[in-house]
Specification:
The protein has about 150 residues and is an all-alpha fold. It is built from nine helices and no strands. About 25% of the residues are buried.
Length: about 150
């Protein structure tokens, strides 16, 4: 389910992701905060793209994504409670708890999708976000410690 959901985020997120990536490619970009409702799905997909652009391995990206569970630990019950109030999710405690987890295998599946469908992150960022190779390189230069 998450791999399909993240595929949907990829297909609809291009314009928003482009805006953020172009910001990161600017000479001396100002700091920015990237977030979404729970900080793991839309944010996780974008940050995975950024990390992969910077040459981070799939395993490290997945491990970083899984740290979301640590960050959300204190909030998980309140998020579940709020989601269970949605009529579409009412009574599905197990399903909702699954929704708020950040399993590394979900991110690995997502990264596999990026590789299979776009030939990797550069293929996605180039075709869908319309970044040029030089802009991708500037993202790397700006984010990697020299």
């Amino acid at each position: 389910g998450f791999v399909q959901a993240y595929r949907t985020i990829l297909s609809s997120g291009g314009p928003a992701f482009r805006r953020i990536l172009i910001h990161l490619a600017q000479p001396s970009p100002s700091p920015c905060l990237i977030h979404c409702t729970a900080g793991k799905d839309r944010t996780g997909v974008l940050i995975a793209l950024v990390l992969k652009l910077c040459g981070v391995s799939d395993d490290v990206v997945a491990d970083e994504y899984a740290l979301t569970d640590v960050g959300l630990a204190d909030l998980k019950d309140s998020i579940v409670e709020r989601l269970l109030k949605n009529p579409a999710l009412e009574g599905n405690d197990e399903g909702v708890r699954n929704m708020v987890e950040a399993r590394r295998e979900n991110m690995l599946g997502h990264l596999g999708t990026v590789e299979e469908e776009f030939g990797g992150v550069e293929g996605y960022v180039g075709r869908v976000c319309e970044l040029m190779p030089g802009e991708m390189e500037r993202v790397r230069v700006n984010l990697l410690v020299q």
